[in-house]
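Here is the promised in-class demo. Please do not try to memorize the tokens; focus on the logic of going from shape to residues.
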């Protein structure tokens, strides 16, 4: 009996064996890991951005998104110049990102003008209803969602009330504004509307760039007894200079952003940005997993933080009333 296999049969056996070890990866039961692309455009420079953004990236990592593994980020910064925002949005969108993340009302408007298709998540912004960014907080209805700072009606009155409690016989308040910021323009009008009922006169001082800050506080020192700095990313970028000028001209100053008090500002009353940015990471995660911005309600803060810097109060020669210290969430001594 001939025990040799026919030549063609031996060839078939070899091909079959080789095929067992060269199956393409596409037939594997292991799913291919998706890489998401996120565009991140911020109005400020990274080194001077307001607090909270670190919480966004940390929470995104907690949710399973690791940069360099399943997440690629296109980062851009306007370096404190609003006029750069439209071009930066267009540039980032050119990289075919899955979601565009930004912060601030002006940046949100620039993002919305740049695309009506790519999902947009705004980490912190003013009232999106006032600026026409969305049709409803509960159901935004377009491609933009995120977190509102909650500077709703009544916040301006709270700022003025705290200043009046701090400065006896207060009659004149200088309000530092950036007229290029839609939120700030709206808040400035609200302050001017309610001030007369509180027996106050308002001096609106416009600041578009850091070169005018010294003149702004010099003017405030001549005509006002206290200052209110409205929330603006560009002014916040120069918060160390702003806080130093307030002390130089011996002006008790109220801020809406916590970062000012960390560098010597007197008092802040406003939302916690870290909480807002963590929620923004939740929104990005949901969108990357298939949710639509139109169905994600725009949330507002449920708690506002009052922080007082007693070191600055001492430098200004003023005494913070016990009524304020008892209500403060944090006192810097």
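The designed amino acids, position by position:
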């Amino acid at each position: 009996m001939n025990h040799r296999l026919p030549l063609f049969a031996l060839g078939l056996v070899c091909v079959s064996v080789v095929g067992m070890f060269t199956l393409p990866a596409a037939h594997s039961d292991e799913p291919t890991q998706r890489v998401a692309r996120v565009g991140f455009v911020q109005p400020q420079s990274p080194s001077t951005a307001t607090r909270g953004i670190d919480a966004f990236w940390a929470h995104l990592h907690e949710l399973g998104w690791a940069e360099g593994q399943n997440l690629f980020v296109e980062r851009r910064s306007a370096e404190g110049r609003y006029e750069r925002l439209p071009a930066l949005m267009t540039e980032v969108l050119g990289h075919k990102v899955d979601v565009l993340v930004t912060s601030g009302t002006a940046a949100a408007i620039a993002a919305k003008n740049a695309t009506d298709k790519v999902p947009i998540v705004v980490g912190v912004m003013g009232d999106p209803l006032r600026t026409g960014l969305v049709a409803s907080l509960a159901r935004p209805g377009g491609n933009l969602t995120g977190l509102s700072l909650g500077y709703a009606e009544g916040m301006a009155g709270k700022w003025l009330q705290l200043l009046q409690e701090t400065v006896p016989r207060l009659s004149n308040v200088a309000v530092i504004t950036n007229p290029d910021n839609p939120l700030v323009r709206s808040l400035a009008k609200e302050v001017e509307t309610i001030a007369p009922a509180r027996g106050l006169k308002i001096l609106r001082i416009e600041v578009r760039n850091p070169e005018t800050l010294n003149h702004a506080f010099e003017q405030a020192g001549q005509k006002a007894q206290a200052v209110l700095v409205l929330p603006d990313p560009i002014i916040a970028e120069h918060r160390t200079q702003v806080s130093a000028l307030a002390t130089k001209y011996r002006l008790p100053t109220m801020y809406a952003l916590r970062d000012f008090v960390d560098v010597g500002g007197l008092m802040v009353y406003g939302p916690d940005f870290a909480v807002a940015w963590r929620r923004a990471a939740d929104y990005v995660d949901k969108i990357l997993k298939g949710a639509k911005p139109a169905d994600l309600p725009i949330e507002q803060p449920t708690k506002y933080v009052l922080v007082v810097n007693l070191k600055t109060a001492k430098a200004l020669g003023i005494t913070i009333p016990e009524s304020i210290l008892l209500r403060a969430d944090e006192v810097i001594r």
